[in-house]
Amino acid sequence: MIYRNFFTHPQFQWVKHPVINLKFNTMLRNIYITPLIAIFIFLLISSCSKDDPVSIHEEEAITLVTLEVTKVGTSESTKYNFEVEGHDHGEEEDHEEEEEDDHEGEHTEIELEANSSYNVSIYFYNDEDPNNIEDITLEVIEEADEHQVFYEITDELSGFSIVSATNDTDDSSGNPLFIKTTWTTTGEASGDVVGYLFHEPTSKTGNTKADFGGNTDVEIEFEVHIE
Amino acid sequence: MVVSLSLLATSFCFSQECDLVLEGIVVDLHDNSPVSAAVIKVVDSKKTVFSDVNGIFILENQCSGKINLKISHLNCEDLYSTVNLNKSTSMKFYVEHHIETLKEIVLEESKLKKLSTTAPSYALTELQKDQYSGRGLAKALEQISGVNLLATGNVISKPVIHGMFGSRVGIIYDGVAIENQQWGQDHAPNIDQNAFDEIRLIKGSGVLKYSGDTPGGVVVLESKLPEIKDSLYGKTILNGMSNGRGLNLISSWTKSFQSGKYFKVQGTIKRIGDFSAPDYVLSNTGADENNISFSLGQNKILSHWKTNFSFFSQEIGILRSAHVGNVYDLVLAIESDIPTIINPLSHQIILPKQLNSHYTGSVQYSKRNPSSGKWNAKYSWQRNNRKEYDVRRGEYKNKASIDLTLDTHNFTTNYEWGSFRWSFDSGALIQVQDNFSNPDTGVKRFIPDYIKARLEGYFTTSYTPSNDFSIGFGLRYSYLNNQVKKYYHLNRWREENYEERLGAFVIRDDVSKKLVERRLTFYNFSVSNGVEFKIQPDLKLSFNFFHTQRAPDIAEMFSDGLHHSLASIEYGNPFLKSETTQKYTINFEKESGNFRYNFSPYLIQGQNYIIIEPKGFEYTIRGAFPVWEYRAVNSTIRGFDLDLILQLGERVKLSNNSSWIEGYEKGSETPLISIPPFSTTSQIQFSPFQWKSFFMTLSSKYFSRQNQFPNHNFDISVIENGKRVTKLVDISTPPKGYHLLGLEFHWGPYTFFSDKINVSLIFDNLLDASYRNYLNRLRFYGDEMGRNIMLQIKISH
Q: Where are the alpha helices (DSSP H) in B598-744?
């Protein structure tokens, strides 16, 4: 009943008043003209363009891990590189070299001699921009309390051991970081080793990955051949 | 003493001059037109004057001090006004002219308009709204059957309506859809529901007035218009909770004037510490929130203007142990019964966390012509900023990994008209959106930079020939233009062979990536139809059909990044097309009598329905990560909602809400992910006679185990204790069903000085049950929160 009352009520005779009518026409005109203006503005805006976003270099991410293996008593060292699969520097020449790197299924093989000792250093890099390679190892050492390197060795490598080297970095509680390690071999064997870098581990010591907690920042797997 | 008193008296006498002139103008409140022949009477002196044709009157020889005036006019309510006169002055007096005929408009405006003539809408009662005032919008909505929560931890939750969430659910506040990166599963709506008087919901795209691309449903938050009179009122709610040691204070005040002007201010402060599961602390799950909103307006009945500004800000901790580095970490977390990191309870929020802010500013104007209809125009601006912080190293330690700023400009206009039986509403929306992804994060953009322009128009109508029958129809057309600039990494580019299809859009080649610019346009069309009739005097039956088209979200097309909580890499699919859904619902509603019920089965058919699912692995230096990618499928969702109420005398009320739903991908019959399990909630409400202002409620919630889920599990090979072992990464199996008891006591209202006070004591998870929820994305890491005792004090001023 609401609306019926509305139109028939004598009070509303004033609606037919010329001034009111004029007002009403103006309003109707507004209803049509306002959207037209708005559409025009819309087309203007939608045709305008956004600035090109700047390219982001993910400097913090580790994209390359290097193991530098030096036999004790010699000065010759071998470097083993571990990179992100399909990681690309944008140049075709580089791409071919990468075929040697760690890809799914095929593991990097590290050849060691029996009954020997090796000094092994692990390095973390960001090589997203090949002209400006960042050494993240320094940051890891700087934040020694929040990082831990751990090598997990399979049982097949019996007699093979990895211990912290004398020139290794210790954290504030005296736990070695395992950045610099000494690898000792005995008899012939071959098996897998996984190298981890943990961030904010809940424990700095342990025998298997689960003991450390925290987030895994690096997980590299390689085969060790002792001959 | 005597001297000083007499001095005071004489000084008073001296100031009592009686040659002051009060010039007044009497105008109509609604259109400012002068009111002639009004009778202005000075109450104390019996002096009477009339206003002239210009509404002007002059009262001469008035003494200083207070004068009481009574202004009367034919067809107007008498206006009493007190003027404090100390010099000659002129004033404006507003009278409400033609009050008789406007009464109906006033009455109509005081009620909120129905969201839909034929589709049932569900509103939260004041009690339901207040009870959840400290727990976020989604939790408040969960009280409605068919609405579930998709949670990330305990604080972040978003509504799931009939199995749909995110971009498929629209949240409309004050007539405008909130734009706050709603695509994200771990993005809670950046809105304070306490700034609004009413929270209503339609399951399905039944409100084409507001949106056509939300097949899940529409949540509408609105404020009532203050009455036209001089008054000041408000309410303050203080919530304290035992779990999380949290406090939450909400206060809102409204000042209204006889002239129709009003001013509203509302604020919320929330501080919550770490929540606790029954057996341990859920470390870093606290939250802080600070919100404020103002509005200023004038309601002249025939016209109304309003400006509004609001600011919402929130800092939410994410369960510390849910931040994992790789899939092996995830396996260890799943294998561990308790979170891998448990710290003592704290109110401090550490990393990882989210920092969200949302600004809104709007102006609106509406004009009503009593003979035809009402025209409304509104401009609103929204700025949403979302920062997500991960656990990072070195100089990036305290930098966000995701930092998105989304600016949205909306211009809407509509015209409503109708007659007794017919009603029409037609309008348009122009929206321009600009998303900026801050490059300072040092992490590749999860969402690219884009500009989105949207032009939409709608028309809805309803016809109600009798009280027993009504029919509704609506359509909405949408034109969408996205301009996106995104960097693709070369490895992804090659793997997906993007060169073939996207090569033409490359605008720049970088060292290891390509910048692609794309302009994507979508034309979408949505229709809603419905009919409602009474088959018995108290039994209503309605049929509704919604056809909805939704353009793929920017996230669905272009997302690119790592989820630390699931150790997964997410990729958008740049070739997606608009998603189409048809929803059919039937609703039986018995709305009176001692036994009331509402039964609504529904069926949703989707074409090009966009889902995300695992697709292979990506090998990184951190290990192998599962890749999740968006894909379009044909889908079927069906289910029913059932609400029962049984009133046993005056003292006892029994009620039950149950929902059942299932969703499948057509063809392969694979279940859809994140479909809520069957749930049923029963309540007994009891109010003893002797205490009229007291009642208590005992509730029981049962959620069954979800047995229909897609199996996305996979194996990984790891070395553990020197042995190579294969481990199953079980990210699919839903947790067991669970049962929760709740108890509530409500006292009040009691008179408290000049105010009213209500007190509630609420026990959630009364038995301190340990359980995990299938719809919580962090369910792999820890239990849900244990018992929570909440005390709520509400003061209505």
A: none
The last residue of one of the domains, among B60, B79, B97, is B97
**Could you tell me if B81 and B226 lie in one domain?**
no
Domain assignment present for residue A52? The answer is no
Burial string for B460-481 (b: 16+ CB within 10 Å, else e) reads: bbbbbeeeeebbbbbbbbbbbb
- What confidence category does residue A39 fall into, taking pLDDT thresholds of 50, 70 and 90? low
ipTM value of the model?
A: 0.82
Which residues numbered 73-112 in A keep a CB inside 8 Å of some CB on B? Answer: 82-90, 103-104
Q: Do A5 and B515 touch (CB under 8 A)?
A: no
**CB distance from A54 to chain B under 8 Å?**
yes
State phi, psi for B103 to the nearest 5 degrees: -50, -40
Helix (H, G, I), strand (E, B) or coil at B771: coil
CB contact under 8 Å between B420 and A9, yes or no, is no
Quick check: A218 contacting B, CB < 8 Å?
yes
Q: What is the pLDDT of residues B435-472, one digit of tens each?
A: 999 999 999 999 999 999 999 999 999 999 988 999 99
Q: Are residues A72 and A182 located together in one domain of the fold?
A: yes
Total-model pTM: 0.86
Owning domain of residue A11: 2-46
In degrees and rounded to multiples of 5, residue B486 shows phi and psi of: -135, 140
Residue from the list A35, A130, A199 with its beta carbon closest to the beta carbon of B393: A199
Write down the mean pLDDT value for chain A. 78
Chain A residues with CB under 8 Å of B329 CB are 215-216
Q: In this structure, are A72 and A173 located in the same domain?
A: yes
Choose one of B97, B113, B134: the last residue of a domain. Answer: B97
Decide the pairing of beta strands B20-28 and B89-95: parallel
Distance CA(A19)–CA(A7), nearest Å, equals 18
* Counted domains in chain B: 2
The tally of domains found in chain A comes to: 2
Q: Which segment, B264-268, B336-340, B395-399, is predicted with the most confidence on average?
A: B264-268
> A12 at the B interface (CB within 8 A)?
yes
Beta-strand pair B353-368/B303-317: antiparallel
Residue B178 lies in a domain: no
Query: Do residues A92 and A29 both lie within one domain?
Result: no
Residue to mutate among A9, A39, A55, A89, with most B CBs inside 10 A, is: A55
Residue A138 domain-assigned? yes
Contact yes or no for B622 and A199 at CB 8 A: no
Indicate whether A92 and A176 sit together in one domain.
Answer: yes
For B409-420, give the DSSP string.
Answer: EEEEEEEEEE-S
Nearest to B485 among A50, A136, A143 (CB): A50
Size of interface A-B (CB pairs under 8 A): 210
Residue A1 pLDDT greater than 50, yes or no: no
Share of chain B above pLDDT 90, in %: 70
pLDDT confidence of residue A35: 62
